[in-house]
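Repro:
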Amino acid sequence: MSKPGVLPTLESKTRERLVSSGHWFNIVRNYQGQSAASCRSAIVIRDRLGTGEHGGVPLWVEMKSEIGSFTSLLSGEKKYYAAHTRANTSFNRHRICISLGVDPTEFTYENESKGGEFFGLVNPLNIDVILKEYFDVTEVAQIFDTSLLIEEGFPTTITTNIGNREYAMEMEAKDLIECVGRIFPRTLVAEVSGHEDIWLGRNLKHTDKTREDWRRFPPPTGPKIGILTGNSPESGLTLWKDFLEHFRRLYNNIPDVLMPDVTVHSLPAMGLSMELIQREEVVRAQMELAIRDLLRSGCKLISVACNTTIYFKPNIIELCNEYEAHFVSIADACVEALKYTFGQTQGLEVGLIGIDPVVDVAGGYSGYEQPFREAGIKARGYNASNLAFAVKHIGTDQRRIQSLTERFRRLVHETLADESIIVLSLTEISILYRNHILTAPKRQPGKKKLFIDPLFELARLLVLKYLSAGLRHSKLCNIPRDFPIEDKVARMIFGARV
């Protein structure tokens, strides 16, 4: 039976109790005052830090509530409860039963929704109003799922309705539970939820087939990223910029609080690696000190924006292992790009442009040798050391840049005329290529060459590693062990494998 006079009371009671709680809270109108009758409709219009017009909030930010009851098969006694959990989880009524001290085999469950009349209006602060007016009940147990107390990322607040479908309240879950506990003596925290299929996009009804809500936002936090640069400093800047562009491209809206934690260390001594063979030990020592600093600062994904110093990959991996961190190599990123482009790489032939230690894959100093060999890739090296040094010293002089651009074009069209795949394993050439050649009008028709830009590919692989680890290990995201999150994220970034 509809009771319109009750509905305004739901909001006023909620506001009254929020004010008297003594805790911080925020009440915000949904975008354009739109009405939210369910969690899934709410999350796209919730406004937290200005997100109402820009994608709303992740599903794990929204709290959902249900009113239910268990009836004894023997006595007919009915026990009412209100349960609350994150919207990316699903209520487990067996666990709810156990938490209430009820034997599941002796009681039957009923969802007390009254035909959905108060969907989108229920919250822990107005539950007694609903129960009194609709069910003539004054005793209720309030159960909060343990997931609500998980704190990851920033802010750690949750959102839910205030008894008005056009408005939401934002509050720390622990503060809300404390406030509710003062009003409702039978308030408890228990593990009463499990995995939610709508969140994961599996076992869905026909109308839900396109929903995989975990894709809407990045995880609340992920492994801190450490980037070592210095040869040249611009290479690290370019890598970080590429990373951010790849990251933002995956999501329509990302508030700053969901961006990754990144430290970029520009080490002048990295410039010594241009003469790696002659200065191997001093380069090794300086790199190890810098990488250890990144690891001590909490970085868990380490990368070097350099094609030369990946020669020290075994040393870097050994350091990372001490701190349970992971090294992401620029050469491995190129191999992954080639795999996604061609499906398989066995017997694939590529041209490799770089300084001599890098492109001489048989010389013992190339960090590309092992990953290319293991992938079955055959590389022909082309020494471009002179061009690299020239690029380092041109500054912003456009005439000199134009001159070097022409030198690069001649290298590609004459020296590398027979190469259809060219890996730009020299960060200076990579930057020159993308800034002055990739964006220029095509001058000559003919057979196109595929350029693999290692900085670009390293950025993509870093995004993959960050998102996969963040989603996999986030307690808020609640990804099951058997859910292939790494494969799904890879498809988001690279597309389907050939």
